[in-house]
Write a structure and sequence with these properties.
Elements (H helix, E strand, L loop, with lengths): L2 H7 L2 H5 L7 H10 L7 E5 L5 H8 L5 E6 L2 H14 L4 E5 L12 E4 L4 H12 L6 E5 L6 E2 L2 E3 L2 E5 L3 E2 L3 H9 L6 H14 L5 H22 L9 H14 L10
């Protein structure tokens, strides 16, 4: 089956990231990357059970932290955590992020893969105050050049800088003139570790998939190193097809 069919067969909560909770250490890495300080008003859009809010308040001493999620149960867990710790400058909202008030934000963590949500949020971000930081994971905001990168963490600062093309975006993210298999694997591995689960085998499978996605996108955009398909790419394409019945070769522009 084609990889698109495989992905569509997975539960929507996995594809959307709804059931993926970032580890506390990953959250700390993100906050250090964004230089989160006591002067910031921090929002986590799609906050889950809200560990990010607790860490931002207790360890990075932000002025205020707000978590927003459409999962009522997880929001309740976050609210209970605040109450137990007697934290008064944090809050949670059970709300659709596309309509929630975020106008006072100075730093926003926004990890979504749904293109419809991203398209709705970009104009809202653009109306926020100058200097506001938007943190994404894996991919930059569509059509805009990142201001800071420590892959898989990407930072866009308002006002956004328009990207001339997806090619320019990729070259900026990977900070290289061309992308070979080693670069694709390194960056895919960074992503897997950042969102890693307790199941190492699943992380390995994710790394293989993401490596192929990175390299194939680079090839189609003309920024892969060399004209030939590297042997490791051929091997992983074969492994996916033989052992998992997943076909990705059709993604290549021939």
């Amino acid at each position: 089956m084609k990889i698109e069919d495989y992905l569509s067969s997975l539960p929507n909560s996995i594809i959307s990231g709804e059931d993926v909770e970032l580890s506390d250490e990953t959250l700390r890495e993100i906050f250090r990357f964004a230089n989160l300080t006591k002067n910031d008003i921090f929002y986590h859009l799609g906050c889950g059970k809200g560990n990010s809010i607790i860490i931002a308040l207790e360890e990075f001493m932000v002025k205020k932290a707000i978590g927003i999620d459409n999962n009522k149960e997880k929001i309740s867990q976050g609210q209970e955590s605040l109450q137990k710790k007697h934290i008064t400058n944090g809050s949670f909202r059970h709300q659709d992020i596309t309509i929630s008030d975020i106008n006072d934000a100075s730093v926003i963590l926004f990890w979504f893969s749904d293109e419809k949500i991203i398209e709705k949020m970009i104009p809202r971000f653009q109306n926020l105050k100058s200097g506001c930081k938007i943190i994404t994971i894996w991919g930059p905001l569509t059509g805009h050049m990142p201001d800071k990168i420590d892959f898989p963490y990407i930072l866009n600062v308002i006002p956004f800088k328009k990207a001339e093309s997806l090619r320019d975006q990729m070259l900026a993210i990977f900070n290289t003139d061309c992308i070979d298999f080693a670069v694709a694997w390194e960056f895919a591995d960074r992503y897997s570790k950042a969102i890693g689960s307790k199941n190492v085998e699943n992380d390995r499978f994710l790394t293989i998939l993401q490596t192929l996605v990175i390299w194939i996108n680079a090839k189609n955009l003309g920024i892969a190193c060399g004209d030939d398909i590297p042997d490791p790419v051929k091997s992983y394409i074969g492994i996916l097809k033989t052992f998992f019945n997943i076909e990705v070769e059709h993604l290549l522009d021939h």
